[in-house]
Design a protein that fits this description.
The chain is of the alpha/beta class. It has eight helices and twelve strands. The longest helix has 20 residues.
Length: 229
């Protein structure tokens, strides 16, 4: 049984979603603040983390960074629908996805299934090519690593899958909707913030000058393209 960690200070939300997710077949660990969440993560095998950004003892962004510093576990943040800044900041702190409050249990379960499925595919699936090289960036599919100028760089599993998708479609424009479907498995989301935030994070790691990208460029009105030259 896959085990989730839900870090949320609202007892009612935590209890309601725990029951709903247990009905979906997951084991759910609960933590009411960031410190307890990090301790629970260290003490247990956790397959995915649900993280509220508004915690009583520490910033949810700091919790996300602390988790990301030691693990590639999928992280889904929980945020208020109007908090665009929080959403983008949470994604840039290393989260893979988000849900908005009030949380719909069925939607959350679908997001969790998609995220865990992506993780499984990344670790077990054979790919059409084992090795991609674009300029000084090398992606090794089977090993699950990316090198820049010969030095391994840390990518989350979502960032790796995003880069892998671009590598498979070199020089082709990919729209945000296409990337949502190819990387996240969402045909219905239609929210470009998820794609844009991850591309910004990826550029920081693979571009020499992230504000003037030469590898993954923006094609105005269409999407993004990975350039080989």
């Amino acid at each position: 049984m896959q085990q989730l960690l839900f870090i949320e200070d609202d007892d009612h939300i935590r209890a309601a979603l725990r029951l709903a997710l247990e009905d979906e077949g997951y084991a759910v660990l609960e933590a009411a603040d960031g410190a307890k969440g990090l301790s629970a993560f260290d003490a247990n095998t956790v397959d995915l983390v649900l993280l509220d950004l508004r915690l009583p003892d520490m910033s949810g962004f700091d919790v996300c960074r602390a988790l990301r510093a030691k693990s590639l576990v999928p992280i889904i943040i929980v945020t208020a629908q109007t908090d665009t800044h929080d959403l983008v900041a949470g994604l840039e702190a290393g989260a893979d996805d988000y849900v908005t409050k009030p949380v719909i249990a069925k939607e959350l379960a679908a997001r969790i299934r998609a995220s865990l499925r992506r993780t499984t595919l990344l670790s077990t699936s054979a790919t059409s090519a084992d090795r991609f090289i674009v300029r000084d960036v090398e992606l090794r599919s089977v090993q699950g690593i990316v090198l820049k100028a010969g030095v391994e760089i840390p990518l989350t599993k979502t960032e790796f899958r995003l880069l892998h998708t671009f590598m498979e479609h070199q020089n082709n424009v990919l729209s945000r909707d296409q990337l949502l479907e190819l990387v996240w498995g969402y045909e219905y989301l239609g929210d470009s913030r998820l794609v844009d935030a991850h591309i910004r994070r990826l550029r920081v790691k693979i571009e020499d000058f992230p504000d003037e990208p030469k590898i993954i460029i923006t094609v105005r009105g269409m999407g993004y393209r990975l350039l080989t030259a």
